[in-house]
Amino acid sequence: MAVTTSSTTPRRTRLAEVTPANLRRRYLRDRVMIGLLVLATLVVLIPLLVIVWYVVSNGIQAVLEPTFWTSDLGSPARALGGRDTGLGHTVLGTLVVDGLALLIAVPIGIGAGIMLSEYPDHPLNPALRILNDTLNGMPAILKGLLAFALIVKPMGTFSGLSGGVALAFVMLPIVARATEGVLRIIPWSIREAGLALGLPRWRVVLNTVLPAARVGVVTGVLIAFARAAGEAAPLLFTAFGNNFFSSAPLRYLTGPVDTLPARLYSLAISPYREWHAMGWGAGVVLLGFVIVTFVVSRLATRQRHQADM
Amino acid sequence: MERANATTRPDTPSPPRPTDAGQGEVRAAVASEAKARLVTEGISVHYGATLGVRDVSLTFRDKTVTALIGPSGCGKTTFLRSLNRMHDLSRGVKVTGRAVLDGTDIYASGVDPVTIRRRIGMVFQKPTPFPTMSIYDNVVAGLKLVGIRDRRLLDEVAERSLRQAALWDEVKDRLKAPAAGISGGQQQRLSIARALAVEADVLLMDEPTSSLDPQSTMRIEELIHQLKDDVTIIIVTHNMQQAARVSDYTAFFYEGNLIEVSDTNTMFTNPREQRTNDYITGRFG
Ligand SMILES: Nc1ncnc2c1ncn2[C@@H]1O[C@H](COP(=O)(O)OP(=O)(O)OP(=O)(O)O)[C@@H](O)[C@H]1O
Ligand SMILES: [Mg+2]
Question: What is the mean pLDDT of residues A284-298?
Answer without folding.
Answer: 90
